[in-house]
Specification:
The chain has a single domain, classed as HIT family, subunit A. It has six helices and twelve strands. β7 and β8 form a beta hairpin. The protein is of the alpha+beta class.
C-alpha cells in the first residue's frame, strides 16, 4: 500500500501509484449521469439512417454498419504546402490523411455493450475492410481506429459510432510503441501476456483469442489493455475465429464497465496495429471514472507537469472489474 512508481515498457514512461488516495474527501466537480438513449431512431440525429448530416449529405437507409468520410475532417488526402524551414526549433511538416466515421448500428439507442454478438462482429469486419482499404493508399503509414464513448470523452453524438484516421506519418504513441517492439529480441507483449496469464491477478476477462487486463503500468483508474494471444500484427492477419473473439472480448469489457457503476461507462478505446513483423496487435481502453458514475479522474497538476499518477492499484481495479456480473 506504499507509494511507488511503475514502468511502462511500451512507452518507456513511469506512473506514480498512490494506493488509498481515492478515499480522500471530495468536494470537487461532480459529473451528471448520462442516461442511455431511449429511442431507436431520432429524427434530429445526423447519424441515424436516412437523415441529413450537418454538412448537407444524406445518410443511406443503412441496416448494418455505415461508413462515410468525415464532413469535418481533421486531415485531407491532398498534400499541402509545407512552411519553409527557418530554424530547428520551429519545425513543421505537411500531414496528409483520411478521416472516416463508422456508425456501428442503425439503432440510435444501442452502444457496443447493448448490441448482439453478431452485430459487434459486423463492426469488427467493417474495421478490417476499412483498414485494408486505407492501408493500400500509397501515403498512409498509420490507421487509427478508435471510439470516444460518452459526453465526458467529448463524443458529439450519442448514436453508436467510432472514427478512423489514416495518417501519412506515424503518430507519437505509435513511434514509442514501435521502438518497444523493435528494440527487444523477444516480443514485449507476447512475454507480458504469458506473464499475466500465469499470475492471474490483473486479468479481467479472456477468451480463446484475447486477454483483457488492467496493465501493471495503468494510468487511468479502470484502464484495460487487450492483447491478442497469438503474435499477429493487424486485423488483416486475423483468422475468422479471432475476429469473433475480438467482438466477444469487446462485449465482455463494455458490459463489465456499464455494470461497475450502473451507468453507460465513458471511455476512449483504440486499436493499435501496424503491418510489421515485430508488432503485436493490442487495444487500449482509457475510461475516466474513478469513484462512481459522477466522480472522474482528472489529468491536471502533477500529472500534466511531472508524471501520471493513479489512486488505486491496478490489482484492485482488476479485481473489481473481474468480480462484476455484467448484464446480458
Amino acid at each position: 500500500m506504499s507509494s511507488h512508481r511503475r514502468f511502462n515498457p511500451l512507452t518507456r514512461e513511469w506512473v506514480l501509484v498512490s494506493p488509498g488516495r481515492d478515499q480522500r474527501p471530495w468536494s470537487g466537480q461532480v459529473e451528471k449521469i448520462t442516461a442511455a438513449a431511449a429511442q431507436s431512431y431520432d429524427p434530429a440525429c445526423y447519424l441515424c439512417p436516412g437523415n441529413s448530416r450537418a454538412g448537407g449529405a444524406r445518410n443511406s437507409a443503412y441496416t448494418g454498419t455505415f461508413v462515410f468520410d468525415n464532413d469535418f475532417a481533421a486531415l485531407r488526402p491532398e498534400a499541402g504546402a509545407g512552411e519553409p524551414f527557418e530554424h530547428e526549433l520551429l519545425q513543421s511538416q505537411p500531414e496528409r490523411g483520411i478521416c472516416r466515421v463508422v456508425c456501428f448500428s442503425p439503432r440510435h439507442d444501442l452502444t457496443i455493450s447493448r448490441m448482439s454478438a453478431d452485430a459487434v462482429r459486423g463492426v469488427v469486419d467493417t474495421w478490417a475492410s476499412q483498414y485494408t482499404d486505407l492501408r493500400a493508399r500509397d501515403f498512409v503509414r498509420w490507421v487509427q481506429i478508435f471510439e470516444n464513448r460518452g459526453e465526458m470523452m467529448g463524443c458529439s453524438n450519442p448514436h453508436p459510432h467510432g472514427q478512423i484516421w489514416a495518417t501519412s506519418e506515424l503518430p507519437n504513441e505509435a513511434v514509442k510503441e514501435l521502438a518497444a517492439f523493435e528494440n527487444r529480441s523477444t516480443c514485449v507483449l507476447c512475454e507480458y501476456a504469458a506473464l499475466e496469464a500465469r499470475r492471474r491477478e490483473r486479468i479481467v476477462c479472456e477468451n480463446t483469442g484475447f486477454l483483457a487486463l488492467v496493465p501493471y503500468w495503468a494510468v487511468w483508474p479502470f484502464e484495460i489493455l487487450v492483447i491478442a494471444r497469438r503474435h499477429v500484427a493487424d486485423l488483416e492477419s486475423f483468422g475468422e475465429n479471432e475476429r469473433g473473439d475480438l467482438a466477444g472480448i469487446m462485449l465482455e469489457i463494455t458490459r463489465r464497465y456499464d455494470a461497475l457503476f450502473g451507468t453507460p461507462f465513458p471511455y476512449t478505446m483504440g486499436l493499435h496495429q501496424l503491418a510489421r513483423t515485430k508488432w503485436h496487435f493490442h487495444a487500449h481502453y482509457y475510461p475516466p471514472l474513478l469513484r462512481s458514475a459522477t466522480v472522474r479522474k482528472f489529468m491536471v497538476g502533477y500529472e500534466m507537469l511531472a508524471m501520471p499518477q493513479r489512486d488505486l492499484t491496478p490489482e484492485t481495479a482488476a479485481a473489481r472489474l473481474r468480480e462484476i456480473k455484467p448484464a446480458i
